[in-house]
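Reopening closed ticket. The problem is back. First fold of the pair:
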Amino acid sequence: MLGFTGLLNYAVDPAKIYSKSLIDPSVYAERLLASKYGLWAPPDTFSERAIKKALAQHAKKFDGVVIGSSHVLSLGIKNKPEFLSRSCRSLLNLAVSGAGLEDHLTLAYLSLQNSVPKYTIFSVDPWTLAFGKDIRWSEYSQDCQAAKKEILESKETRASSVQAVLPEKISNLFNLGYTWRSLKSLFGKERHIDVIFSPAPALDYTVGGDFPVYLSDGSYVYSAKTRAELQKTPIPKGGISYKTDTPCNTPEGVAAYRTLLEWVKKRGTEPLLMMTPYHPKVWQDPSSRDVLAMLATEKVLLKLAAELQIVVIGSFNPSIKNFRENDFFDHMHIKPEAFPKLNVRQTKN
């Protein structure tokens, strides 16, 4: 049974952890940027990190670059917060699901190699300030190694980088959640490779279409089916712990993030820090792992922002700007139409 499970996950590989994308990411990125209403993006047909890496090469065409996790996948030019509406005419969304510190380093490095956007917006999650929270960054491990070498002046070799993530990649082959995702991808009706590269029609991002869509700014529109499914997901008091069951805000992670922000400033672009709130029901249990991690991370971020004179947008706490239950998909994702409610918490002196 274990052998079958491992083989299934390795062969189907919905997140493309062990295999390459079925399409050329550079071609998809170019067609996406040239599209009017975006391109269809059927689930588990290509690697989002490969697409976002390809999009990062075009960062010079935009005023701002967004780096973060699925919490900000839907943030784009049409639903940006007020501060960005006043000062940023165009955005490139480079957010990827489950983004960790390694993703922040890599995507900042890739997007700032040949460009100096006005802003680099870092959407920080409760787990961001610690290494090793996700293995999906290993897809661009060589780029991550280059980023660490330049930004952190790390002497880590490619061999040690691969060795560090290998146990996690092996463990993931027998992960129950990944197995379920592989089965859905294998037998589900949503895996339609034939619609990739097909232009999407004009969609209401508050409703969605038959499939998910990437818009020309890299932001993501959930399918109507996914929106409906998420709305039915029960939210227990305290939420569902995600990436907060192991230490967050490690000294090594906090130091690396400070260095990243300082490096971004030296490149000539202004870093902004963003936090998106968790559902009010999560905050009803002050002892939950997510709440404890959020409180600690927000404290660290506000301290970093004050010391480095960086603007902070939003909060993990929904009461800061009166976010209500209907502003959320689930326990930790706000709806695209709720992004304009995020407000500036702190500005430079």
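Second fold of the pair, where the issue appears:
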Amino acid sequence: MGLEIGALHVRRSIFIRATPARVWQEFASFKSISAWFGRGHVLHVYEPALGGKVDLSIELGGKRRHYGGPILLFEEEREVSFACNWADADMAWSVPTLWTLRLTQMYDGTQVEIFHHGFERLGRDAADNLEGYEEGWDVKHLKALRAIVET
């Protein structure tokens, strides 16, 4: 059914006028997902399969910082979820958080959601981390996906 999304999460969503099967085509390969998902960060590795790897990076303080992890759930036309932690020991959490990209059939199209979740796992640092990510996220990735799918 999908990974459970806990109470402490960042969520962004968009409605796309296309079937989940059509939207999923943009999740099927590194080339297709990097056309829309690599905005504000760089997507270096995306292995679309259970146990595959996701590696992203952003520039912080003039230094390229990598994050990502293994794909924990891969349900075609429905969901990709992966563990997420910083590669550098000075930034890594004691346990990874989670990212979920979920597609849900709705009306004549698809609701696409991106969640960064699992902050509860960070204990007393959960609230500060959640607030930081909530402030930094927007929907530019999802708008780019919609532009690709609906044209």
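Update: turned out to be a display glitch only; the data is intact. Helices lie at 20-24, 30-37, 126-136, 140-150. The chain has a mean pLDDT of 95. Please close again.
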